Amino acid sequence: MNLDLLKTELIHDEVMYLDPFNNARGNRAVGVSRDLDINPLTPEEEAVVGHDGRSKSISRGAAAYLLNADITRTLADLDRVLPWWRVFDEVRRRALINLAFSMGAQKLLGFREMLGWMRQGNYEGAATCLLNTAWAKQHIDRARRLSVMLRIGIVPVGEDA
């Protein structure tokens, strides 16, 4: 897996914030959309950042460290809830990681029809299902790109983040 490309895609979709902000849920967040109310910094992460991330800026290095930790957690969550997800090619795996990163692996399970089509190898059906979700209506450009990645296993030209 090209982790550098995955990170670039996630930073493009989520944006990297060095200053803490209130996200769409009204929760405190920092870095690449790290929701500190849902996922507070661990003691190890606080040691790297130098504080709890809630009220002071963080460095780019700290944001990168948190992103790596969040990707590691997302991969573990996907392994736990969708043990079959790693059978897909890299582009489709990156699309699933991107979705799980955005909403959480547990909420991704709510996309039952899409995941069912994926598991059967019906990528056209999976891509269509993704575009028909409320999430897709909130994240139009991201959803279109991810649906192409699911459908054909290629990042759309000019849209590789």
Structure annotation, total helices: 9
Q: What is the 3D shape?
A: elongated
Identify low-pLDDT runs: none
User: How many angstroms separate the termini?
Assistant: 16 Å
Tell me the number of strands. 3
| Order of strands across the main sheet | 1-2-3
What's the overall average pLDDT, rounded?
95
Task: Outline the biggest β-sheet.
Answer: 3 strands, antiparallel
Reading the helices and strands in chain order gives HEEEHHHHHHHH
What is the beta-strand fraction?
A: 5-15%
Q: Percentage of helical residues? A: 55-70%
Briefly note the structural class of the backbone.
mainly alpha
Radius of gyration, in Å, reads 16 Å
Give a quick rundown of the structure.
By secondary structure, the protein is mainly alpha-helical.
Walk me through the structure:
It contains nine helices and three strands, in the order αβββαααααααα. A hairpin with a 5-residue loop joins strand 1 and strand 2 (28-31). The chain is mainly alpha-helical. The longest helix has 22 residues, at 60-81. It has helices spanning 3-14, 43-49, 60-81, 90-103, 105-108, 112-120, 123-131, 134-138, 140-152, and strands at 17-22, 28-31, 34-35.
Question: Could you name the key traits of this structure?
Answer:
single chain, 9 helices, 161 residues, three-stranded antiparallel beta sheet, mainly alpha, 7% strand
